[in-house]
């Protein structure tokens, strides 16, 4: 008779683009680009294995943020810790490019550990844990739930609503060949903003949500304007203005930084190939190589399944 070996859980988590211009640390949109995280208990020492896109930029040690998420679930659930883990990350998301890569890793660790512990925590509790580790809820909420999410944090609790983003919308990503850490992008931000700028962003972010959920995408040209973070962060991205102008001239509805950058996201209903070509060409004029992805919103969010591998006696 075969006997069961240690159980294994695998999570598939979508990338995200956040802020969408004015929705700083509030708005997130899941995208059809994925990383996979697999967790298995072992009787030997812990191994962290990283494969795929930008694997050389991601630590393959227990200091990896995904493994920290695994430990958090086991500690807070009170579950018995095995001697070790095998944590494998098949990364499909460019690292340190403003596409929620760290958030997907965190969620992968949380979801797989939660599954191996018998699912003691709800998705809402896992989102709180993910926000604790990530520092803000926009990426992790979008990747967890899918669609367009609006999040607000009250003390240690995240309140999130998921909205349907019509699949007619496409996001063209121009991903430059240099990273930009969230810490570096936050360091250039002011410590306070004027009242007029706060009102400006409140009106645009509200209009942005309404335009997407009602399908009145022509409003995006106004609704994605921002005064809180992009005027400061775009100084860190050579050619941003030219890339944005090239995208809108080619037919994009609007353009915004993806998260903290340096990826630039153009929102389109059509002419995606032309927009992609012109964005890449504009970056090239500044001696910057860029990768292009044309993606649809992800409507389903993260998923996890658990299996028992079997070995012969």
> Which stretches are low in confidence, meaning pLDDT under 50 for 5 or more residues running?
none
Query: What is the annotated CATH architecture of the largest domain?
Result: 2-Layer Sandwich
Task: Report the biggest beta sheet as strand number plus sense, adding barrel if it closes.
Answer: 7 strands, mixed
- Could you tell me the radius of gyration in angstroms? 20 Å
Count all strands and give the number: 11
What does this molecule look like?
With 313 residues, the protein is α+β, with helices and mostly antiparallel strands. The chain has two domains: 3-163 and 298-311, Ribosomal Protein S5, domain 2 (2-Layer Sandwich), CATH 3.30.230; 170-295, GHMP kinase, C-terminal domain (Alpha-Beta Plaits, 2-Layer Sandwich). The chain is 34% helix and 29% strand. It is built from ten helices and eleven strands. The protein has helices spanning 65-77, 101-116, 123-134, 138-145, 182-187, 195-214, 220-223, 230-233, 240-249, 272-284; strands at residues 3-18, 27-42, 47-52, 84-91, 148-154, 157-163, 170-176, 254-257, 264-268, 290-295, 303-311. Strands 1, 2, 3, 4, 5, 6 and 11 form a seven-stranded mixed beta sheet that branches. Strands 8-9-7-10 form a four-stranded antiparallel beta sheet. Helix 3 (123-134) runs antiparallel to helix 4. The longest helix is centred in the middle third of the chain and has 20 residues, at 195-214. The chain is globular and about 60 Å long. The mean pLDDT is 94.
């Amino acid at each position: 008779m075969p006997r069961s070996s240690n159980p294994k859980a695998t999570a598939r988590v979508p990338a995200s683009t956040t802020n969408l211009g004015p929705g700083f640390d509030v708005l997130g949109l899941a995208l059809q680009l994925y990383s996979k995280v697999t967790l298995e208990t072992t009787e030997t020492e812990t191994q962290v294995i990283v494969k795929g896109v930008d694997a050389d930029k991601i630590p393959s040690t227990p200091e990896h943020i995904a493994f920290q998420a695994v430990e958090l679930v086991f500690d807070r659930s009170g579950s018995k810790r095995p001697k070790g883990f095998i944590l494998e990350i098949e990364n499909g998301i460019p690292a340190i490019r403003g596409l929620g890569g760290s958030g997907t890793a965190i969620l992968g660790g949380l979801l797989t550990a939660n599954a191996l512990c018998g699912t003691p925590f709800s998705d809402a509790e896992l989102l709180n844990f993910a926000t604790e580790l990530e520092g803000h809820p926009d990426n992790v909420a979008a990747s967890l739930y899918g669609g367009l999410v609006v999040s607000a944090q009250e003390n240690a609790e995240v309140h999130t609503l998921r909205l349907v983003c019509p699949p007619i919308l496409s996001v063209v990503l121009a991903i430059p060949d240099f990273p930009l850490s969230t810490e570096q992008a936050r360091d250039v931000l002011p410590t306070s903003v004027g009242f007029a700028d706060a009102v400006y962003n409140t009106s645009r972010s509200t209009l942005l949500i309404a335009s997407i959920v009602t399908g009145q995408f022509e409003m995006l040209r106004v609704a994605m304007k921002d005064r809180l973070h992009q005027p400061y962060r775009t100084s860190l991205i050579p050619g941003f203005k030219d890339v944005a102008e090239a995208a809108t001239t080619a037919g994009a509805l609007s353009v915004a930084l993806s998260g903290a950058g340096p990826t630039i996201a153009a929102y389109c209903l059509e002419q995606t190939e032309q927009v992609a070509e012109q964005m890449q060409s504009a970056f090239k004029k500044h001696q910057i190589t860029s990768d292009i992805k044309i993606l649809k919103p992800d409507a389903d969010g993260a998923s996890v399944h658990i299996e028992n591998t079997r070995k012969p006696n």
